[in-house]
Amino acid sequence: MTSERKRILVTGGTGLVGSAIKHIFESESNKEKLNEEYFFISSSECDLRNREQTETLFKKYQPTHVIHLAALVGGLFRNLSRNLDFFRDNMQINDNVLSVAYQIGVKKVISCLSTCIFPDKTTYPIDETMIHNGAPHDSNFGYSYAKRMIDVLNKGYSAQHGVHYTSIIPTNVFGPHDNFNIEDGHVLPGLIHKCYLAKKNNTPLVIWGSGKPLRQFIYSYDLAKLCLWVVREYDSIEPIILSVGEEDEVSIKEAAEAVVKGMNFQGEIKYDTTRDDGQFKKTASNKKLRSYLPDFKFTSFDQAVKFTCDWFEANYDKARK
Ligand code: NDP
């Protein structure tokens, strides 16, 4: 018996996570048998903040499934200065995507939350049940509240219309096609870019903050494999954290050391402690994921950082920076 063909629209398909899903799907050896077709969409094809454009996009591709990744995203420093934009843009994008998906009869939508939207004052490890338990960190309240509303929308669509709209919660993602902009990007791609420049210009590598905060990083290719599993197998409305284990949490200092090794940087390393550290930690539990996939193998952090450094050096001219 052949399964019904899936037409999967990936919003934000040209970003870090979207391009990893493309890479992993295209390298699957049994993809012919899967009866799946993917469409990777960028903002140049459709501005999802605009309702009309969103309707035109969905009518064109007639998706049965949506992986909704598109978002206004950025690191700590960009969030701090633009909380209102992060809230409004993401609220518009998410409402348009989910309501148009419902309007044209999409069966399953998988949207992306993030561990940085969880309550600031909390117990650790955080898990999927704790999203709404208190205010998020002040530095990114706009992004956080907009993301939390996706979970509210998913529950509403399920309760009122019986459709299967769910969400995934990745920890810090990194890999090829990341945003390597030093001011606007996330910590790891920012470190890679700074290290690349320090090596090239023979200057010290300056790490922002104390280096003490802890983070769980997931390699985009590992996350992409998990996203495909969610499309095919995960059947709950409730969010699921997609992360390495608590034991794999690293400090920013350790992350910088992995970058230094990956880039083969021999120069001086300095810490600029006048810069904000952000949340000290946001340790997440991957117990739920492990209950479904006990044997999933994550790429080792050092190896994944090395792959990403190599990709950045080889693609310096075209990389987002
Ligand atoms: P990127 O910044 O790499 O990509 C963002 C994508 O969204 C791009 O394809 C961009 O298109 C698209 N996009 C942005 N604004 C619009 C818009 N108005 N209309 C249509 N498309 C738009 O993001 P990531 O791949 O890093 O993130 C993917 C998802 O994962 C996001 O929802 C993010 O919140 C979540 N996430 C990310 C984490 C991380 O560490 N990166 C951690 C946890 C969650 P274009 O490039 O063409 O402008």
Task: Write structural notes for this entry.
The structure is a single chain. With 321 residues, the protein is of the alpha/beta class. The protein has a domain at 6-174 and 217-244 and 283-298: NAD(P)-binding Rossmann-like Domain (Rossmann fold, 3-Layer(aba) Sandwich), CATH 3.40.50. Helix content is 42%, strand content 15%. The protein contains 11 helices and 12 strands. The protein has a 6-stranded parallel beta sheet, sandwiched between helices. The chain has a two-stranded parallel ribbon with strand order 6-9. The radius of gyration is 19 Å and the shape is globular. The N and C termini lie far apart (48 Å). The model has no long low-confidence stretch (mean pLDDT 94). NADPH dihydro-nicotinamide-adenine-dinucleotide phosphate binds next to α1 and β6.
Keywords:
11 helices, two-stranded parallel ribbon, binds NADPH dihydro-nicotinamide-adenine-dinucleotide phosphate, Rossmann fold, 321 residues, isomerase, NAD(P)-bd_dom_sf, GDP_fucose/colitose_synth, 6-stranded parallel sheet, 12 strands, alpha/beta
Uncertain regions: pLDDT < 50 for 5+ in a row? none
**For the largest beta sheet, what order do the strands appear in spatially?**
2-1-3-4-5-10
Order of helices and strands: EHHEHEHHEHEEHEEEHEEHEHH
CATH fold-level topology of the domain at 6-174 and 217-244 and 283-298 = Rossmann fold
CATH superfamily of the domain at 6-174 and 217-244 and 283-298: NAD(P)-binding Rossmann-like Domain
Radius of gyration: 19 Å
CATH class of the domain at 6-174 and 217-244 and 283-298: Alpha Beta
Distance between the termini: 48 Å
Structural class, please? alpha/beta
In CATH, the architecture of the domain at 6-174 and 217-244 and 283-298 is 3-Layer(aba) Sandwich
What is the 3D shape? Answer: globular
Summed up, the helix count is 11
Number of strands: 12
EC number: 1.1.1.271
Protein name: GDP-L-fucose synthase
Family: Belongs to the NAD(P)-dependent epimerase/dehydratase family. Fucose synthase subfamily.
Function: Catalyzes the two-step NADP-dependent conversion of GDP-4-dehydro-6-deoxy-D-mannose to GDP-fucose, involving an epimerase and a reductase reaction.
